[in-house]
Amino acid sequence: MPAPTEDGPPAEVTGLPPAAAATAASATTRMRKRPKPGERRTQILQTLAEMLEKPGAERVTTAALAARIEVSEAALYRHFASKAQMFEGLIEFIEQSVFSLVNQIAERESDGRAQAQRILAVLLQFGEKNPGMTRVMVGDALVFENERLLTRMNQFFDRVESQLRQSLRLAAEAAGSTTPTVDGSVRASVLTAFCVGRLQRYARSGFRRLPTEQLEGAQRLLLG
Predict the structure, then answer these.
(1) Is pLDDT above 80 for 35?
(2) Residue 7: what are its φ and ψ, rounded to 5°?
């Protein structure tokens, strides 16, 4: 997510006593740093993701989030109706980022086995580059949150499995399988479980065990 930007330098404060000038300069700085419309929402989501990146981080509260951004909790709720909505904002980012690439792979790659390989790589690379998001994806950050968030993340992996199923059915057909639908379904289920397991290990190892570790070898084993 893009970081908030700031406006140009503050106007020079002249002709005031030192104390008044300092106060005016401080006020000008506060005005300069005030985010443009929409930027505060992005900043909230960025900060939430950053707080989730700390290994062993406890549940992120709105009070801690507000303190980190240096705003009031009321300011948070001007942009999000609830904390659950903040997490939904992160989930939307995950969905858009991953499935925009998955859709490109499905459109541009005709080989089903190659599609599956690249989908696995995209999913695990995304988690590796976004550790805070990984904790959302595997549900660690959602344990004490609204149940609908876990449901939505489960649906995310259902979509991943559905796309893998299509790719692997193509691969099975190309290999001359007499049961391509069954073969595709079984392998898609195994590959999805593999991805979830790798992401869970990454989160629960304090982000030390990378999800892409020995990925090529794992793909050869799983995809034949």
Answers:
(1) no
(2) -75, -175
